[in-house]
Amino acid sequence: MPNVFKKALDLLVGTDPAINLSMPKKLRPFKQLSERELIQLESEIGAKLFGPIPASNRREFFCLDRSTWIWYEEWVDLETGKQKTATTRYEIHENGILKAQEGAHYSFLEGEELRNLTMAIQMYYEQVARKIYKRDPRTGQKLA
Amino acid sequence: MSEQNDTYPIPETFIDVPRNREGLASYGEGVARRDVDNVISETLPVNANEAPTNAEIAKWALQYTEAVIRLRTNEVGANLFSDSLSRDDYTLIA
Known about the structure:
Shape of chain A: globular
Oligomer: heterodimer
Low-confidence stretches of chain B: 1-42, 78-84, 87-94
Mean pLDDT of chain A: 78
Number of strands of chain B: 0
Order of helices and strands of chain B: HHHH
């Protein structure tokens, strides 16, 4: 019955990834996930690398491409009650990692901040390798 | 190390990351917990007596970034090129 429902849904609305994400995971064979869906799964792990997220917040942290990482956060300003957002882009260059924030703020990371970002990148790799791709992060071999 | 500041939830920079040392030190099931402070010194191939340069740390971060992309590419396969993202697309995901 669930397969019939999914087929009907596909016929009605197409195979929009957002629709697929709302389906129970067991109905989505892993191999059919798109790059966008994989990034969303990775971001669920990335967001949790830095501890609990308050209920009123939304956080995304993910690897966008071969040289870019994204931090996105939504929260409610306690004073005004308004929702705020912040997006930070980290670009990896040969001479360092550039942080780009809204409002055209650019700066190369230094010291502890630089070390902590690279540590988070390693954590991200190790956790997505195990939890999403089911591979040993050290050897690349499939986990049993 | 900085303390958790509940009134300002946004980590403005990654300076605040180590405040959650337990979370960062957890590598998942079956993997030994390591001292977060030693992670970089363990894995960066540099002289132990010298602090790594920013360029060396960036190169190290790039290696892990490329490893993530390889994992993703292997799973997506041919579909990667029909569904690839550009830097401008990230707001759609976020």
